[in-house]
Amino acid sequence: MAEPGYKESSQGVGKFCEDSRLDAILRLSQMGNASIKELAVFALDEAVVLTQSEIGFIGTLSEDESAYTCHATSNSRDYPSSMPSNLPPLDVVHAGFWAEPIRTRKTVVVNDYKQFDTRKKGLPHGHVPVKRFMVVPLFDGDRIVAVASVGNKSVNYNASDEHLITLLMSGMWRFVQRNQANESLLRARDALEATVQLRTEALQKVVQRLEEENLEHLETEKKLWKSEQLCVNMITHSPLGMVLVSLDGRFQQVNEAFSTITGYSQTELLSMTFQDIGMPQDRAVGTEVMARILSGQTTPANVEKRCRHKDGRVVFLQLTTSLLRDKQGVPLYFLTLAQDITQRKETEQELREYRVRLQSLASELTLSEERLKRSIAASLHDSISQSLVMIKFEVASLCDAVTDESMRKSLTHIRDSLGRTLKTVRTLTFDLGNPVLALLGFELAAEKWLQDAGAKYGLLTHFINDKCDKPLSEDVEILLFRSVRELMMNVVKHAKATHVWLSLARSGHEMVVTLRDNGIGCHDQKICETSEGYGLLSVREALSRQAGSLVFESHQGQGTTVTLSVPIMQKETS
Fold it and tell me: DSSP code of 97?
């Protein structure tokens, strides 16, 4: 709902507002893991300043858009608000004019509140007097996720103000989503680790109990020789799966617990062997264990083995097997304790899958951050840097034109200050995202960065390019450039090298990037791959998600060679 006087044009955004908006987005991106309240306060303060307003508020909606939570308010110094700083969620259905954007799904602008107030019930007692206001909804897909309002601008609100507020809220919401995603990942990881820890402790207790029972069993073995019935009774009443097995592998006695684990009745099991219920792939394991026990190499023997449940599913067992002998030491039977560890195995598999998902999310987050840095760097380069260059040129022209020495000195000082500021902006631009990568692609960006790094760190660099066509997707270019940069910094920090070679070549449908140095090398590849930072493991995992690969070769005193391979983009054929 827009009141008369609202201009549907975004051409009112001036150069100063554009620069201020970029500066606000840059500072917003540097707030890291700030809370939603901190992000909202920052976004609201910037919105009030950029739209030249006096008051405002900003908050978020619930999933069903029925409740609104205000995170920040900005009130005129002349009319302090009586609104408390921490309001409970507000009911949107019965809310006043501020909720109109939620109900109408579009921005509400009122540039003459007195006329607008004749149709409404007015403001609450003690509320800041309102001359004009704008309420802007922020959409995430089809859902409104946040609402911001500014008020009491000295002139009418227009589409430029709406555009500025929308951009600030969008930036705030992106970082809110990122922080929420990080918190969810951390909570999920902590919950999973806690579950695994609890299950591990429970298993350790069970294992400890098994070990204690084994020791007790060994202590009572002499007594068991005197009475086979005593052994049968122990097997029958044990809470663990227990089996008495003949030397040829047939079940002689099984207890109810083992019957429950396998799904077969005790009668059925007495006509079977471990080989009958075991998986074909594990048969050699059972035969080998029996042979080692009989030869005296080990007793008791612990082994994990899979068996086929009667209903067809696979059950994982932890088997502890001992050999029972008579008084003369002649082997009589194998006594096997069986524990169902299927749940533990499933938990371990879930943990492995969780780690893979976490690594994938971390890689995507890294690419998203690189894209954001690249966008900010481009904005800095295209707007601020160009403006500073023009200002410096004009000041230099004035400096040459004036004859007054005092004025000339002042202009010279301004020109020099502009030069230093321009250098700082350019450094920040390169730190955030190499513009050569965005404008000219990976090959030229890599060559330029290698030359600059060599000059900065005192290395002799050699760049080799076969000049073949090697088209890459944007994500692959970002990943390769980041990988080469980080691997090069590892050379600077650890290799003690004097020469570095970077070669780019096409091999079939792949691009091969090779970074080689003449440094001290690494005598243990595992140590290198698990080093801190963006190490070889991180690079290898990121490449694998792009169907690429990494090969590491290093010898102590002979330098290191790292080869990265990624698929090139295939041209479409008609």
Answer: G
Strands 108-110 and 133-140, sheet pairing: antiparallel
Burial status of residue 339 (CB atoms within 10 A of its CB: 0-12, 13-18, 19 or more): buried
Q: Which residues contact 120 (CB under 8 A, 6 or more apart)?
A: 96, 97
Establish whether the linkage from the previous residue to 300 is cis, with ω within 30° of 0: yes
What is the rounded CA–CA span in Å between residue 7 and residue 109? 10
Looking at the DSSP bridge assignments, the partners of residue 250 are: 273
- Helix then strand then coil, in percent of the chain rounded to 5, is 50, 20, 30
| Rounded distance between C-alpha atoms, residue 148 and residue 92, angstroms | 14
Q: Is the peptide bond before 101 cis (omega within 30 degrees of 0)?
A: no
How far apart are alpha carbons 497 and 161 in whole angstroms? Answer: 55
State residue 16 phi and psi, 5-degree precision: -65, -45
Q: Following CA atoms 21, 51, 76, 116 in sequence, which dihedral angle do they give, to the nearest 10 degrees?
A: -150
Burial (CB count within 10 angstroms: exposed 0-12, middle 13-18, buried 19+), residue 204: exposed
How is residue 168 written in tokens? 């600030």
Whole-number Å distance between alpha carbons of 62 and 68: 7
Nearest CA among 541, 567, 532 for reference residue 357: 541
Pairing assessment for the beta strands 499-507 and 460-465 based on DSSP bridges:
parallel
DSSP state of 106: S
Q: Which of 507, 548, 503, 553 is nearest to 528 (CA)?
A: 553
* Backbone phi, psi, residue 285, to 5°: -65, -45
CA distances to 192, 207, 248, 534 from 353, rounded to whole Å, are: 12, 26, 41, 22
Q: Residues 284, 274: contact at Cβ < 8 Å?
A: no
Count of CB atoms within 10 A of residue 308's CB? 16
Positive or negative torsion for Cα 205, 211, 213, 219: negative
For residue 479, the one-letter residue type is: L
The overall pTM is greater than 0.90: no
Q: Are 463 and 450 in contact (CB under 8 A)?
A: yes
User: pLDDT tens track of the chain, all 574 residues?
Assistant: 555 545 554 444 455 566 666 677 677 766 767 788 888 888 888 888 888 898 898 989 988 988 888 888 876 444 444 445 566 888 888 887 778 888 889 999 988 877 775 555 566 666 778 888 899 999 988 999 899 999 999 899 998 888 888 888 888 888 888 887 887 888 888 888 888 888 888 888 888 888 888 788 777 666 655 665 665 566 667 777 888 888 887 888 888 888 888 888 888 888 888 778 878 877 777 777 777 777 777 667 777 888 888 888 888 888 888 778 877 778 878 788 888 888 888 888 888 777 767 666 665 666 666 666 666 766 666 667 667 777 877 787 888 788 788 888 888 888 888 778 877 776 666 566 566 676 678 888 888 889 988 999 999 999 999 989 888 888 888 888 888 888 888 899 888 999 999 999 999 999 999 999 999 987 655 545 544 444 667 778 778 878 889 998 888 888 999 999 999 987 554 4
